[in-house]
């Protein structure tokens, strides 16, 4: 609960670890071509040197065009709810009082954008009800993440989840009931299906997980204005999307509105769209969403350990919008809350804890200069 207000319980979400391989080793030739175009492939230039130059520029206070590397903002307004009491919003107010006006201005690139709410695992109802009230008053759509599956995260930084199947069923029922008739999007159980695919979740839990995911989709879809996207990882984690098709089917994707990609990760829009389009085709043109909260500078390159965890030199990506220009891609969303730590790595606090210095770095390197 450190650093969190009572109505914003600690939600220890982190990003699933990508395989320790270079992007150029991806199985898909088509995807590799996209990565080559969007990220300059595996060039001979040192990616570490590039990141270190970016970090030096940030420390020196250079926030001009040479330091801002993320994608330009879409032109259409976002239909999603912006929380006026988010960690970023409160940080902006605090810095303004302290006279840190430049930092506060930069951080508005986060505070004035819609980010997903990750309700507490013990009791999701208070947080959801608060967000629903705010979104309803603003005539906008609330975005939530359901992250409480038993045996979550394979016992790593965000280990935990419901104690058993009945606890999870009760939790999902409370989650769905709190949404009620509001307009909502739910990103369902980041990592849960990819961890079934990569062997991280023990085999004895597979049938239970498939049953719980199917149940969760069905329960959430009983809410008349709720859309559900089942998480499917990212292209650098499960390189061949064909490996996900049967697990997604067994988990009930046919009853969902689609799948989500890149949650809490850093893969570029072009790479994820290419991957999502391939996976969609294998599933009969299922729609999808992309987490663009921190992918403006792409992923940290090279075979570094824990490249997914608080990597330096990253930037905000495309702001949340449904104006994607792609009929299969329903929305760019900020699912990971920019500025929340991935875990206790690179000097970060516990997973899910607000980290203002990291948030400021993301904002400074953003190309979005509207704030």
Strand count, sense and barrel status of the largest sheet are:
6 strands, parallel
Percent of residues in helices: 25-40%
Order of helices and strands: HHHHHEHEHHEHEHEEH
Q: Find the structural class using helix and strand composition.
A: alpha/beta
Mean pLDDT: 82
Low-pLDDT segments, ≥5 res: 1-75
What's the helix count? 11
The radius of gyration over CA amounts to 19 Å
Strands in their spatial order, largest beta sheet: 1-2-3-4-5-6
Bin the strand percentage: 5-15%
Cα separation of the termini: 30 Å
Brief sketch in words of this structure:
With about 375 residues, this protein is of the alpha/beta class.
Describe the fold and architecture.
By secondary structure, this protein is an alpha/beta fold. The protein is 35% helix and 8% strand. It contains 11 helices and 6 strands. Strand 1, helix 6 and strand 2 form a beta-alpha-beta unit.
Question: Which helices and strands occur, and which strands form pairs?
Answer:
Blueprint: H1 29-39, H2 47-59, H3 87-98, H4 101-111, H5 125-137, E1 142-146, H6 165-179, E2 184-188, H7 192-197, H8 206-220, E3 226-231, H9 242-250, E4 258-261, H10 269-282, E5 288-291, E6 329-333, H11 356-364
Parallel strand pairs: 1-2, 2-3, 3-4, 4-5, 5-6
């Amino acid at each position: 609960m450190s650093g969190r207000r009572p109505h914003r319980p600690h939600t220890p979400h982190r990003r699933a670890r990508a395989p320790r391989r270079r992007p150029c080793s991806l199985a898909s030739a088509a995807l590799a071509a996209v990565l080559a175009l969007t990220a300059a492939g595996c060039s001979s230039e040192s990616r570490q040197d590039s990141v270190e130059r970016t970090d030096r520029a940030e420390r020196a206070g250079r926030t001009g065009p040479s330091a801002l590397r993320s994608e330009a903002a879409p032109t259409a307004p976002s239909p999603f709810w912006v929380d006026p009491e988010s960690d970023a919003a409160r940080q902006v107010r605090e810095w303004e009082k302290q006279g840190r006006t430049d930092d506060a201005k930069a951080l508005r690139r986060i505070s004035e954008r819609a980010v997903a709410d990750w309700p507490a695992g013990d009791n999701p109802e208070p947080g959801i009800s608060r967000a629903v009230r705010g979104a309803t008053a603003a005539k906008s759509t609330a975005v939530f993440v359901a992250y409480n599956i038993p045996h979550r995260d394979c016992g790593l930084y965000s280990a935990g989840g419901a104690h058993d199947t009945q606890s999870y069923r009760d939790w999902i029922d409370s989650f769905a009931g709190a949404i009620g008739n509001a307009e909502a999007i739910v990103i369902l159980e980041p990592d849960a299906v990819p961890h079934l695919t990569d062997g991280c979740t023990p085999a004895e839990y597979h049938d239970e997980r498939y049953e719980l995911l199917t149940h969760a989709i069905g329960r959430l879809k009983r809410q008349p204005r709720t859309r559900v996207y089942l998480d499917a990882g990212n292209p650098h984690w499960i390189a061949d999307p064909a490996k996900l098709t049967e697990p997604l089917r067994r988990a009930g994707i046919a009853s969902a509105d689609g799948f989500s990609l890149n949650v809490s990760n850093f893969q570029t829009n072009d790479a994820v769209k290419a991957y999502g389009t391939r996976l969609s085709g294998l599933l009969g043109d299922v729609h999808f969403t992309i987490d663009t909260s921190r992918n403006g500078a792409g992923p940290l390159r090279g075979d570094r350990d824990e490249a997914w965890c608080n990597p330096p030199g990253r930037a905000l990506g495309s702001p949340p919008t449904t104006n994607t220009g792609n009929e299969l891609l329903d929305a760019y969303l900020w699912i990971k809350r920019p500025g929340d730590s991935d875990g206790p790595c690179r000097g970060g606090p516990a997973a899910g804890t607000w980290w203002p210095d990291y948030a400021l770095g993301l904002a400074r390197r953003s190309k979005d200069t509207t704030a």
